[in-house]
Amino acid sequence: MLIKNPPRWMLRENSATDEHVYLNRRAFMKGVGAIGAGAGLLQATPSLGAEDPSASLYPVKRNESFTLDRPITPEEANTTYNNFYEFGSHKRIYKLAQHLKIRPWAVKIDGHVAQEMTLDIDDLLKKMPLEERLYRHRCVEAWSMTVPWSGFPLRKLIELAAPTHRAKYVQFETFKDKRMAPGQKQRWYPWPYTEGLTIDEAMNDLAFMVTGAYGRPLPKQMGSPLRLATPWKYGFKSIKSIVRISFTSRKPVSFWEDVQPSEYGFWANVNPAFSHPRWSQSTEQVLGTSKRVKTLLYNGYAEEVAGLYKDLPQNRDLFF
């Protein structure tokens, strides 16, 4: 007889919000948008992506293997408090981020792959199995949120790319357009924003390519139309608005690692025992609440990812 032991972080079934309550809310919101009756409510949350042609794909079915031990952060809080340095360094970036042009949008896949390709974002969405996952998100600035992301496992895209044996790392790159994104006029930053994972990290089931949130296409300020979610790492690893994915034999130098390597390294795994050089990482402010809670090793996902690092020195370099 097969006995399935759920992960420690999975919310018990009797503690979760009833599925019909959540689905009814989403159905109601979708209906409101369709008839225009909730215009005032919808304007309060700048996240609709009304011009996004993928809107009809959402909401998608939730994968119940990925749930939470804390409430979902209110949508308005998550969509009005954002880092997106392409549009500026302040947190209320959501209005400026609406200048992001998300169509046409193509994603180039190159490097050590069987065949390089460029995929239109809508064609890519048709090829991928979309689902919803509930994830924690922990910023290196010591605040956190929880999000109902929609998207597909990164490993599915890797399977499509068919990397060769020479591919040891995956490098991600965002757009570069100073006319559209005024933050990119700041010459002291190494634009475009880049990030990287090892192949093993990228193939882990938690690594997720995000295309939507809260049952709709991904808001521009959250990295539309395609971003990465690696919930066991600090948030700056979850690169936004991806236009290129390269498979390489060399470890990439990420954006913030290039800016300040003593504070932001390649691995950036969450660990409350190792402080940032300028602040503690032992606790985090929960966005949208007055709560401050203890930070968990690997942001609570140690059972799923610790094995990736068993052969590496367990020192500060692994967590920054």
Notes on the protein architecture:
With 320 residues, the protein is of the alpha+beta class. The chain has one domain (45-318): Oxidoreductase, molybdopterin-binding domain (Sulfite Oxidase, Chain A, domain 2, Alpha-Beta Complex), CATH 3.90.420. Helices cover 17% and strands 20% of the residues. The protein is built from eight helices and twelve strands. The strands form two sheets. Strands 3, 4, 7, 8, 9, 11 and 12 form a seven-stranded mixed β-sheet that branches. Strands 2-1-10-5-6 form a five-stranded mixed β-sheet. Strand 11 and strand 12 form a beta hairpin. The chain is globular. The model is unreliable at 1-49 (pLDDT under 50).
Topology overview:
Layout: H1 19-35, H2 39-43, H3 75-78, E1 106-111, E2 117-120, H4 121-127, E3 131-138, E4 143-153, H5 154-161, E5 169-174, E6 194-198, H6 199-203, E7 208-213, E8 216-217, E9 227-229, E10 242-248, H7 255-259, E11 283-286, E12 292-294, H8 302-305
Parallel strand pairs: 1-10, 4-11
Antiparallel strand pairs: 1-2, 3-4, 4-7, 5-6, 5-10, 7-8, 7-9, 11-12
Helices, by number, come to 8
Low-confidence stretches: 1-49
Judging by the overall fold, what is the CATH architecture? Alpha-Beta Complex
User: Biggest β-sheet: count, sense, barrel?
Assistant: 7 strands, mixed
Mean pLDDT over the residues: 88
What is the helix content?
Answer: 10-25%
Radius of gyration: 19 Å
- Overall number of structural domains: 1
What fold name stands as the CATH topology?
Sulfite Oxidase, Chain A, domain 2
How would you classify the helix and strand content by structural class?
alpha+beta
The CATH H-level homologous superfamily: Oxidoreductase, molybdopterin-binding domain
Say how many strands there are.
Answer: 12
Give the H and E element order: HHHEEHEEHEEHEEEEHEEH
* Binned strand content: 15-25%
Terminal Cα span: 43 Å
CATH hierarchy class name = Alpha Beta
Basic shape: globular
